[in-house]
Amino acid sequence: MSDPAIEVSGLSYAYPDVPVPVVRDVSFSLERGARCVLVGPNGAGKSTLLRILGGKHMVPQALVRVLGRPAFHDTGLAAHLTWIGGAFPLNVDITVQEILDGVRALDPLRCERLLHLLDVNRGWRMHRVSDGQRRRVQLLLALLRPSEVLLLDEATRDLDLLGRAELLALLREESELRGATIVYATHILDRLEEWATHLALMHEGRFSLTPIDAVAPLVALRAQGVSSPLFVLLERWMRSGCREL
User: In 3D, which of 53, 17, 51 has the Cα closest to residue 34?
Assistant: First the structure.
């Protein structure tokens, strides 16, 4: 059995001058090839946790390990990990093709596939594109290089229905064929119960992780033929004050 892709042990994290931790005593292990949907209310700590996994906040080496290496201290992880989130502020008069021309060791076949899948035009000028088109370019550039770990923080919020479906299909393929491990924080839940292998909940910095097929209330809703069962389950959870499912 291979080592986990992500291991977190007793992690708590607070921002400077903020007394209350944003992440509280989080411990979990996620296997290689897993597709984890991370959900919770605004302010739950999801983005902070993803940034920590992506090596963007300094934490003790033993607490967070990605691919067996300390997330913050091993800078070489950047070649194996992709974090996608936040704004994409490239708003200058430059075309997509000009950006691609500056990418070293570009795989032309993978690039062409991503251009088609994300419906990105090489001639788009970045100072004229819409928010949705800008997000597509961000995803294109982030996915040009295959990664062993992908961390997505609301990365599909500006995509239309087809763009999101195509991206999720690609991510499933990356996990099944390449063994990529994916953690995807989102509020858009439609059909994710069919895509995810794991469900992670966050509330007030606390974290729980369960294989998707072991979430008994979700299994029951699916057996009842409920439309969008994951949405229904998590709406109930949040309305209950985020008590245990």
Answer: 53
Q: Two tokens at 38? A: 């991370």
Q: What is the 3-state secondary structure (H, E, C) of the chain?
A: CCCCCEEEEEEEECCCCCCCCCEEEEEEEECCCCEEEEECCCCCCHHHHHHHHCCCCCCCCCCEEECCEECCCCHHHHHCEEEEECCCCCCCCCEHHHHHHCCCCCCHHHHHHHHHHCCCCCCCECCCCCHHHHHHHHHHHHHCCCCCEEEEECCCCCCCHHHHHHHHHHHHHHHHHHCCEEEEECCCCCCHHHHCCEEEEEECCEEEEEEHHHCHHHHHHHHCCCCCHHHHHHHHHHHCCCCCC
Closest among 192, 191, 143, 144 to 36, alpha carbons compared: 192
Give percent of the chain above pLDDT 70.
99
pTM: 0.93
Alpha carbon separation from 127 to 111, 119, 156 (Å, rounded): 22, 18, 20
Contact 155, 82 (CB under 8 A): no
Q: Please state the rounded mean pLDDT for residues 53-71.
A: 95
